[in-house]
Amino acid sequence: xxxxxxxxxxxxxxxxxxxxxxxxxxxxxxxxxxxxxxxxxxxxxxxxxxxxxxxxxxxxxxxxxxxxxxxxxxxxxxxxxxxxxxxxxxxxxxxxxxxxxxxxxxxxxxxxxxxxxxxxxxxxxxxxxxxxxxxxxxxxxxxxxxxxxxxxxxxxxxxxxxxxxxxxxxxxxxxxxxxxxxxxxxxxxxxxxxxxxxxxxxxxxxxxxxxxxxxxxxxxxxxxxxxxxxxxxxxxxxxxxxxxxxxxxxx
Length: 251
Ligand code: SF4
Ligand code: SF4
Ligand code: SF4
Fold this sequence. Notes:
The protein is mainly alpha-helical. It has one domain. The chain contains eight helices and six strands, in the order αβαβαβααββααβα. A two-stranded antiparallel ribbon has the order 1-6. Strands 2-3 form a two-stranded antiparallel ribbon. α1 packs antiparallel against α8. Bound molecules: iron/sulfur cluster (SF4) (3 copies). The site of one iron/sulfur cluster (SF4) has 14 residues, from α2 and β3.
């Protein structure tokens, strides 16, 4: 079930912007990049190939109404599995978001949000830095998943994730988690947690299923050729596009 870290190589220090630029250009042998200037170096060198995740949660901020349904259902379905109930997707205020006309027509000025889930990176730096073998690629859907039974809460995965979230002062949910990347800490369970695509659910990610904008698009009430939260196949090509979009917004 797990992929072990690879062997030695000279560590490199890259800015997040460099990481995205090089990764988007096909450079994927990247050492983990820390947050706040702290680099967490993987013990190994060139990462082993990871199976591509079968999907990834792909948000469109222009369609988001900030209702928090995704956060609530994420918490609930994980709690029901005995897992951390910290939401794996979070919604932030983002004045830079350009709200889609169909949303303005349906909901007035309710918009300017940004969703920030895990991007299921093909090379998943978070996977490679875990010293406890607690961040495997789960075989059913190949999602990068934290095994809460093995997690020793060292925080390396969160530090290695190159994708920041907005400042928590901009989070629309009331809870603060001290979250800075796509992996967050749960003090109640003393584990870190991240999106796992709800890998046990035949229906797929609960957030994608429950998003009311998605529901209205499916019903034909809101007209859009794509969803507010979608789940496309996770390919390197898709990741390059998604990460570049996310990166521009988050810098
Ligand atoms: S916090 Fe847990 S999952 Fe993350 S690197 Fe440490 S042991 Fe692994
Ligand atoms: S947690 Fe971060 S590094 Fe890990 S797969 Fe998700 S976006 Fe990539
Ligand atoms: S459920 Fe959909 S519309 Fe509501 S906050 Fe989440 S992504 Fe936005």
